Sequence to fold (834 residues):
Amino acid sequence: MRPRSLTTLVALVALFVGGASYAYAQVPGAPPVEFPYTGNRTAVWIVAQLHILFAAFILGAPIFVVISEWLGYRKQEPRYDRLAKEVTKVTMILYSMTALTGGLFIFVLLATYPQFTTWLINHFFMVFAVVYPLLFIGETFVLYMYFYTWDAWKGNKKARHIALGVLLNLIGTITLFVIDGPTSFMNTPVKAEGISPAEFLETATLWDKMFNYSWMPLNIHRLVGNVTFGGFIAGMIAAYMYMASAKDEERSYYDWMGFVGNLIGVGALLFLPFMGYLLSYELCDYDASICPYMMADQLSMFFEMQGAMIGLIFLASNYYIWLSMKRIQGVEKVRMTILAPIVMIALPLVMTKVMTDYPVPDPKSLMFLLPMLLSPVILGRFIPLTVSARTVIKVGFLMIVVGDAIWMTPHGFVPTGAKLVAELELPSDWNFLALMPAKNSAAFTLVFVTVVNYVIYNRAISQGTIVWGRIDFVSQFVLIFLAFSAIWTMGLMGAVRSLLRKYFHTYNLMPDFTAESFTPTLSYSAWWITGITVVFFLVVSFAIIVTLRASHPKDRVPEGSPVPAGAK
Amino acid sequence: MGKAIFKIIIGLVVGAGLWVGTMALEFPPVFRWMFFAYAILGTVVFLVLDAPSMKPLSGVKALGAVIVFYVVLCVVYIAGASLWPQYDPEDEKGKIEKILKPKRAASEQGKADELIARAKALDEQAKALAERIKALGGDQAPAAQAGGSPGAVASTGASGDVLKIGEEQWQLQECYNCHKLKGEGGKKRGPELDNIGSLLTVDDIKLKIVDPKSWMAEGFEKEFEKGKMPDKYKDLMEDQDIVALATWLGTFKDASVNTPKPIKKK
Fold:
């Protein structure tokens, strides 16, 4: 498998570089192709999104793989090492898919938008022709070395193997940052006050183009998003394998793996709303007209759908904690200070008020909010009133519903501000529910509740006993749900980021003169996002079956057993 | 079972309370139903929390359950997204066409398209001429043809109401997203402009459009410092369109509206 994959990869890189230069030379006479049924833009969207999904996994999974391997080494627990190795096996197959869809993406882009593609390649020639291929080849070597030295570098050599994993992540992260340069440039190309973007671009260096407004926010957002993504996919792998396990020992292991995958996914998910906020803040700062287009105009309903998805993801991840608690013996003894549910209930209202009066980054807002958030930890020690863990979690669920309700309350039930009428608009006294302080408080409530639930879980495992493998079977569907929903949301927000360029390939610089340069409906987008997610899941499911299921034969035939000639 | 019924009753009572409460607070019906839906969501959550454990599945049954689960997720997400109000792309297509038309004409591709279109028109004219000469044998035909379409194009290009173009630019550039005018649009991102014609000349307004740092509206110091008004319009708009927009805005002299005082900054 290794030589074939390497050959494929090298061939793709060669074709990409060669194809790009050929297309550049052919621009004036090259008639763009027309994809049947989907149209060119949707065809590019499908291939690009698929590529991003595979790439997100192969960049996100190694981060927690190496952490898991290190934990196994440090705690001397083989199951961490097994988890790391099994996820790496799946990563190997998806790595080939990343290269394949990446090559396909370039070909489709060159065929459909030759002028723009060559223009972009020309501006980032060093990146596309030298830096990116070298990083990709480097990552390929290190990934294969990491996998194939797994069993050889054990014991004393384990530290060396972990170091190789760290190197793999380092190269992966640099690759992500490098390719984010052209991607973010398309949204926020370099500009300077008083000079037109086209004029400034002529004198801009490669670094100017890379280090644009949204580059670093996109890097951070994608990095954290990839860890979430990898965690939830690991949870899904565990769910498949748990369902397929016939032995208690296997079920115990995959129950544990599902919990760890979910823990990593949720742990990173807690930061995502704030990373997303940072990215949109920078986009709005770059061009204030992007903000209403996102939040109040053509894309406003995309954000309603995002609110619904995030609410469901938080509900599901907390429900998984709830189900996990049920398999802990002695959980009923766990109690918590009454201040925790009180803060949960007060948080949305108080935070909205404080952030309205002292908008971020005003430090006064922290002066009010920090003591409140820390009060269960500090004052809880002195107040003897406690409530059961069950009650705290149930209050938490109530507040997740309230938080999501605030997140999803729009200024008006219209897809564009131009169509806003009084019958579809929030009363003016309640308009604060549709403003950013309320949305931030809603996001923070979801995060706070989840953190409290994990604190309770930690107390429960320190006071009780976990019975691995005995989790309610429905939890496996929760893990699948989380993976599917997280990826669907990723597709939705990817569409939003691309659509923010409006009728430009590169915002304000390179117009898209094709008939497809309009904002599609949310419904149309949802069909394609769902389709892309399903295709991705089919490939991932295949990878899991091939790498993990097939490697656990029920009855192993002893090697060297005589087989009669002509036996069927 | 008794507990479940109790939860459903509680959920319905909370939902009804929210519906009545929001009605009393004069929320439009769509918001009342939305709050009612949240109460139902909460009820479902609490029913699921105490639902009995699911029996383990294996083999074909587990595979079937997973496939059905995926199908349900797909249907729910597509249906959910389709239930929200949908933006009509047709509203935007005409706008984009108008905005990009001059840019397309200025591009290499646009010039090539124009040459091809001209060549086609000339070809058609030549064919028509040949047919007329063939049919009539007259020598008046070329003169009649030559005086035809170019003149018509010129007269169409020369006509046009500046104020109408200005108003159209207001819509095309979506100025209403930040500025309130005639009681419509704006989210307090930028100043209300109903009296701008009394405070600034057409040239001043034009200057503000091409160079947002040239004037600052009183009370909008923070927005001015942050450069909230994009400085992209000089690149996006044609000169005559900027003049038309400035001229149209210059006609707004409604002193009853408190348009903030402009302060010269450059």
